[in-house]
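Example S7 (structure tokens).
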């Protein structure tokens, strides 16, 4: 059956050839053996072309790079057509044509499969969509992929297993339905659904039509619909109203609804019941919606009530969580353990947090914990009681106040979002006067995870094999723990709080702010979140002590703009500014002039801000600036403003997933203190500044996944302080600079995925300090002869996941 490739010429040629071969296999007996082999080869190639078409739709591009393949396909069509004209008794011609068909099949395998595989991988890198929500939403999982998060290794509880079976049976039935899974917070509803969606039977039925949508307290229907388009491989529409979002969503579901569809709406609040109705779409024969919520929605049935663990199950989970390296760490007598478990209300989240707080502690500490848990329980509100129980587990952090501080800082980011680890590190470096690179901050990330106060997620396959920069890591936190962090932050009078965390709905400012009667605030960390209905000019806010400001917003659907608040200009101690747009498309950022000269770190996500426009600013204290998924295209500056004048003391430049970036201003190379230069996943970057060799302080250059980069400037040989060079997945890079051997202090090179790189320059033998090279197996042969000369060289093999087994048939 011909397949649709968005009108691409190569797709049409492939479809015609495949259709012809399928027909002739049934009707032309004389060449049936050769035609069956061609049919098998085309069948194996078909899913690769489907992937390319899916990615092209997503990127709104046509596969022009595959034009040469079209010629081969058209030649094949003529060759296959000729089978109809050769009589079966014409043995000589039949023999000759059989040989031609065999040769064509080999050409398909090696001239078609490999280029298509490379093209697909390049586009997959572009889209960043990891197969499990990892780095492709690579990086994009973090910002929009609806793939099901990883399931836990184990789940304790017969109740959970029974619920899994019941839900699975319901989902495997034909027909459309809405299923509610309800339980108090911390009972494991989301964990249950992750496990369910990874069950073989469910994956087998719904395949890639499973969408896992975190809804949370302030659902953004427009953003959800746009992510649904992205997840299903369609061009993402611009949506300017909620009504149009519903229309687009219905269109999408009708397109993909020929196959079974499963939509999980996770953590729907009582106030958001209407959003469930919007996702109901009549006419789709096998469409399941599963809703998790702390609330039961009586209008929808069936409803599954997930109960707390039994006492024995709770004890089992507690023992697992309090155990390290298969050894029970100071486990007390059974009576004391049972009492603590009962005070945890047999809720998995509470059990995990409390158990991990007791790891390695002695008997007296366990007794103290039981006493704390026994005090002050309220039976009126289970959520309040759970939070109270969790709060008491934080008392153990009083001996380690830095961890408690870091835990409360997590409340600065929206509910159910992936918090970039680098954003936290940037914030902590300035708030707590840590080292510039954040090495002192990274143990705190792991300590939070160890105590089950947050989850550290690293979606990319190669995340561990980096330079400890945590650039691909994210932190996630259960919404109950976030509530707890915010409650801890909100203790005491507003004017005296160390942290000010504000979550604004529309234009509803707190009375104390709007009335302009507040005293100057003492908060050192300020976080303000706004939704898509925010439009009011900012009231004044006096923040004389603020050192870190986090602005989270959803761009207005009509204007796609956001203005920095004027009060930033008067916040003279402000050192770190983190601005994140949680809408699907970048938003224009106004009022840039309010940024003060004392800022040391700026991080912008999904912001449209021409990089060169910053030449007019005076950011003389700025040490690090990060752009993530921003539009930063160069705008000509008539007044000759230079980036090097605007930020002369910049130490680190980080540009990631900025696809409109083609070149960089040359004067970046005039910034003398620049030590780290990271331009990654910028697929239209074609060249680096030729003068990069002037950046004598550079120690790290990351260029991974700049798929259109053709060469490195020869001047790179002058970088005597360079220690780490990452050119991984630079698919079109053909050679290293001839004089790369002059970079005498280079210690590591990462070059996995450099498909066109076929050799090494002779000067490579001069890299006496080279300690590690990361590459694929086919590149190891280039490096192995150097091990005799470079005695300390370690070659680390990066395994390619592509499967070529079918070529052996």
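Recovered sequence:
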């Amino acid at each position: 059956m011909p397949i649709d490739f968005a009108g691409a010429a190569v797709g049409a040629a492939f479809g015609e050839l495949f259709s012809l071969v399928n027909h002739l296999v049934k009707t032309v007996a004389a060449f049936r053996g050769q035609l069956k082999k061609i049919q098998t080869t085309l069948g194996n190639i078909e899913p690769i072309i489907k992937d390319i078409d899916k990615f092209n739709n997503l990127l709104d591009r046509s596969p022009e790079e595959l034009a040469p393949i079209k010629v081969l396909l058209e030649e094949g069509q003529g060759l296959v057509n000729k089978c109809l004209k050769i009589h079966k008794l014409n043995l000589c011609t039949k023999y000759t044509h059989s040989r031609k068909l065999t040769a064509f099949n080999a050409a398909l395998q090696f001239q078609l499969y490999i280029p298509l595989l490379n093209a697909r991988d390049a586009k997959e890198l572009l889209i960043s969509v990891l197969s499990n929500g990892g780095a492709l939403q690579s990086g994009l999982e973090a910002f929009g992929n609806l793939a099901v998060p990883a399931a836990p290794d184990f789940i304790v509880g017969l109740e959970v297993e029974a619920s899994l079976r019941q839900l699975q049976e319901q989902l495997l039935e034909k027909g459309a339905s809405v299923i509610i899974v309800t339980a108090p917070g911390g009972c494991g509803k989301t964990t249950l659904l992750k496990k369910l969606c990874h069950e073989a039977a469910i994956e087998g039925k719904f395949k890639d039509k499973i969408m896992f949508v975190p809804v949370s307290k302030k659902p953004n229907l427009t953003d959800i619909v746009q992510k649904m388009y992205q997840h299903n491989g369609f061009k993402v529409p611009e949506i300017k109203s909620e009504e149009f979002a519903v229309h687009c969503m219905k269109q999408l579901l009708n397109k993909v609804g020929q196959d079974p569809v499963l939509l999980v709406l996770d953590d729907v609040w009582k106030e958001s019941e209407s959003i469930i109705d919007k996702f109901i779409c009549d006419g789709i024969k096998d469409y399941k919606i599963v809703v998790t919520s702390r609330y039961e929605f009586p209008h929808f049935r069936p409803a599954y009530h997930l109960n707390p663990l039994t006492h024995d199950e709770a004890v089992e989970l507690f023992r697992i969580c309090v155990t390290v390296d298969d050894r029970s760490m100071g486990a007390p007598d059974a009576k004391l353990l049972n009492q603590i478990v009962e005070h945890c209300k047999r809720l998995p989240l509470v059990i995990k947090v409390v158990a991990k707080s007791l790891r390695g502690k002695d008997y007296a500490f366990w007794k103290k914990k039981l006493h704390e848990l026994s005090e002050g329980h309220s039976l009126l509100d289970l959520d309040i009681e759970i939070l109270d129980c969790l709060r008491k587990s934080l008392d153990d952090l009083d001996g380690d106040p830095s961890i408690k501080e870091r835990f409360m800082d997590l409340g600065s980011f929206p509910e159910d979002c992936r918090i970039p680890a680098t954003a936290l590190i940037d914030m902590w470096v300035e708030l707590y006067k840590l080292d510039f690179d954040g090495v002192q901050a990274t143990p705190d990330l792991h300590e939070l995870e160890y105590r089950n106060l947050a989850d550290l997620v690293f979606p990319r396959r190669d995340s561990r094999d980096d330079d400890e920069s945590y650039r691909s890591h994210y932190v996630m936190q259960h919404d109950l723990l976030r509530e707890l962090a915010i409650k801890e932050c909100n203790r005491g009078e507003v004017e005296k709080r160390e942290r000010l965390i504000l979550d604004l709905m529309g234009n509803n400012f707190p009375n104390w702010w709007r009335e302009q009667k507040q005293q100057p605030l003492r908060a050192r960390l300020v976080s303000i979140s706004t939704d898509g209905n925010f439009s009011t000019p900012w009231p004044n806010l006096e923040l004389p002590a603020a050192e870190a400001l986090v602005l989270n917003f959803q761009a207005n659907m009509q204007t796609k703009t956001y203005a920095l608040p004027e009060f930033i200009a008067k916040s003279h101690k402000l050192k770190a500014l983190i601005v994140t747009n949680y809408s699907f498309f970048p938003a224009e950022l106004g009022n840039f002039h309010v940024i003060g000269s004392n800022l040391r770190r700026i991080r912008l996500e999904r912001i449209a801000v021409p990089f060169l426009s910053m030449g007019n600013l005076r950011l003389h204290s700025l040490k690090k600036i990060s752009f993530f998924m921003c539009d930063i295209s160069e705008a000509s500056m008539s007044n000759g403003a230079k980036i090097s004048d605007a930020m002369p003391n910049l130490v680190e430049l980080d540009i990631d997933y900025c696809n409109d970036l083609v070149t960089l201003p040359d004067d970046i190379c005039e910034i003398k203190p620049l030590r780290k230069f990271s331009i990654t996943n910028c697929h239209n970057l074609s060249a680096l500044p030729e003068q990069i060799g002037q950046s004598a302080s550079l120690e790290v250059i990351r260029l991974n996944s700049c798929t259109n980069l053709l060469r490195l400037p020869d001047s790179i040989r002058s970088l005597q302080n360079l220690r780490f060079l990452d050119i991984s997945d630079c698919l079109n890079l053909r050679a290293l600079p001839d004089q790369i051997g002059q970079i005498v202090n280079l210690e590591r090179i990462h070059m996995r995925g450099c498909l066109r790189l076929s050799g090494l320059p002779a000067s490579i033998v001069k890299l006496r300090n080279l300690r590690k090279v990361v590459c694929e197996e086919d590149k190891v042969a280039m490096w192995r002869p150097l091990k005799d000369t470079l005695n300390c060289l370690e070659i680390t093999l990066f395994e390619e996941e592509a499967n070529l087994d079918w070529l052996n048939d």
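Notes on this example. The longest strand covers residues 261-268.
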